[in-house]
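--- STAGE predict ---
source: upstream dedup step, 1 unique chain passed
mode: sequence only
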Amino acid sequence: MSGQPYIEFEMIQLATFRKSKSGKWQARVSKEGREFSIGTFRTKKEAEIESSKVEERIYYGQTLNDRNMLFEDVANEWLFKHKKSNVKDSTFVQLEMTVRVHILPRFGSHRIMLIRRADIKKWTQEYTNMVDEVGNEKYSFGTRLRHLSVLKSIFHYAVHELEVLEKKPCDRLRVPVKDSVGINTETKYYILDELNALLNYMKEYKHQRYSGYQIYYMLMYFLSQTGVRISEALALRWSDINGNKLTVERQTSRDDHNNVKITTLKNSSSYRTIGLNDELLHELKKFKLKQNEMILGTDHFYKNSDGIIFQNYLGNYLTPSTVRDSIRDYCKKAEIDYKGTHGFRHTHAVLLLESGASIKFVSKRLGHKTIKTTADTYLDITGKIEEDELKKFASYTHN
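--- STAGE serialize ---
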């Protein structure tokens, strides 16, 4: 306007962008005469969006942390400052081993800002391709999934807590699988005929020292009828049974010296009360009578001070390794493939679903955190469920 001074506003461009030979865009921002790289992006628009976030932090005087941190430093801070005080000791031990053995050897010496999505995809693929001495997968799908989950948590910490990254290079990255079945190839369970054959064998099996004390028959039968985890079963007490209800509220673990520890459960949904059928209650009653008979009338057979259900003759808690070795040996004698101690939990879930139980009932009974966990694990592994559902549909629509 006439008579008004003309004021020119200067826009200060803090970010610069450069297109690389690969077609991706690199972005850098300036602060106090120094330039910081904020990463590489698929499009210029993505680079502009991320750089604007950094510019905003610079404008408001927020600290830009050291973007040249080594991945090892970030991982150790996540592990010892963030996780150690927030998880159970046993969980921390597993996390520490995963970081030390499987993650740091690959990424530890790299600057965290230079680790790219392609590097992580290559790492996950290499673990997928690893085989043991007989050609089987060295690491199961579930194990590889845990490795990637830990790595994602470290990058999440780098972005949201340390603020040394603007984006996570592993977002929406999945663990590769060798076939289309995916996680369900890891779910081993006994079909009904196999389970019955194994239990019939165990019912007739006579222990050389205490022939009437059929602890492994009772344990296998109990696991297949309740679906509780082996760590939960070994911590159960007779007082946890009230009428036809069983309360699950603790589990066993072992310290570095193999001493038993009674710990809290996996998560809040693991605390549960489930129903017991009449046949199982009858078998438990017989087992308890036999146990008391052995304690009162047999030399060197002692009572457990906690009143646990599955005690050995010395009155001690069973160890998971002993249980695994014993059940593997019994399966071999019964000519049944060994499916692991967790196989009985899977068996219980599959048989429930095949008998027509709802996915919500199964999920609650198993103590899963979400119904999705149950559905992802079980619904696709049994052809009988799909066959029955198709028959229902055909019957409904048949004219």
